[in-house]
Amino acid sequence: MVKIYIFELTSAICDKDKSFFLSELYSSERKALPKQRGKGFELSLIGKILAKRIVSNATLTPAKKVLIGKTKLGKPIIKKPCNMNLDISISHSGSYLAVGICDSGKIGVDIEFLKDIDFRIFGNCLSVSEERYINSGKEITQRLEKFYEIWTRKEACLKALGMGLQKPLPITQFYPGLIKPRAEVVHNSQQYYLSTLKEDKFVLSVCTTKSITEEPIYTKLSLDKLCPIVVDVK
Q1: d(CA 48, CA 38)
Q2: Nearest CA to 184 among 145, 162, 204, 213?
Q3: pLDDT by residue (tens digit) across 40-70?
Q4: Residue-range domain boundaries for the chain
Q5: Mean pLDDT of 97-108
Q6: Which distant-in-sequence residues (6+ apart) come within 8 Å of 114 by Cβ?
Q7: Superfamily (CATH H level) for 2-229
Q8: Which one of 27, 168, 216, 225 has the minimum C-beta count within 10 Å?
Q9: pLDDT > 70 in the chain, percent
Q10: In the prediction, which pLDDT does 28 show?
Q11: pLDDT tens, residue by residue, 135-193
Q12: Could you give the CA distance from residue 6 to residue 97 in angstroms, rounded to a whole number?
């Protein structure tokens, strides 16, 4: 099972919902939230709530008893319930949030809002073939999309490896070329599978050790659909 939940924050969370979401967190989870209130805070808050609900549904554990922590390198981990064969990953950019879950394997997800940047400054993180692939786009929008495709694959892979961004981004085996959408990467004799979803406003990549032949299951959520999801298991 590889499931990806995509949430778009189209308006600010009202104080009532924000208070409810905060009450669902352990004190350690609240302390890990950004100190500055704003969109980043709200997406981080929703990310934790959604991750707890996903784990709750998968384990039939009340959401309030699910504790999401982090490794020293920043990878989200399930601290409670213990010894669960589940892995999660959380990413947000712009107004978008992605939460991924995988059973019996590792997962990393990275979502990037499509915004104008000078991707040439990331040249030291790109291989020659990757640069050629990006520059094959005829329009700047196509080149940006290709850059984000490469970039999200790199970050998703590092998140699946549990390395965060404290290691140099890999520059090999990420060139999509003209082959099937699911690419394979081998690290320390472990096979990783990459998949990328492209939308009008974002690019999302998933990296997982779960050997599946089909694309991950994507579920899109909005704020009005979120509250019923986080109602606790009886």
Answers
A1: 16
A2: 213
A3: 999 999 999 999 999 998 899 998 899 999 9
A4: 2-229
A5: 92
A6: 144, 145, 148, 200, 201, 202, 203
A7: 4'-phosphopantetheinyl transferase domain (3.90.470.20)
A8: 27
A9: 85
A10: 94
A11: 888 898 888 998 999 889 889 988 998 876 555 555 445 555 444 446 677 777 788 88
A12: 6
Instruction: Give the pLDDT confidence score for residue 213 in this predicted structure.
Output: 60
Reading phi first (left if > 0) and then psi (alpha if -120 to 50, else beta), residue 108 is in beta
Amino acid at 7: F
Which one-letter DSSP state was computed for residue 125? G
Give the C-alpha separation, 213 to 61, whole Å. Answer: 30
- What tokens were used for 104? 């019996």
Is residue 19 packed enough to be buried (19+ CB in 10 Å), middle (13-18) or exposed (0-12)? exposed
The residue to which tokens 């694309």 are assigned: 215
Instruction: From residue 56, give the alpha-carbon distance in Å to each of 49, 52, 132, 232.
Output: 10, 6, 44, 8
The CA–CA distances, whole Å, from 179 to 14, 41, 174, 182, 230 equal: 46, 39, 12, 8, 39
Note whether 174 and 153 are within 8 A (CB): yes
Q: What is the distance between the alpha carbons of residues 22 and 18, in angstroms, rounded to a whole number?
A: 6
Tokens 């020659």 -> residue = 128
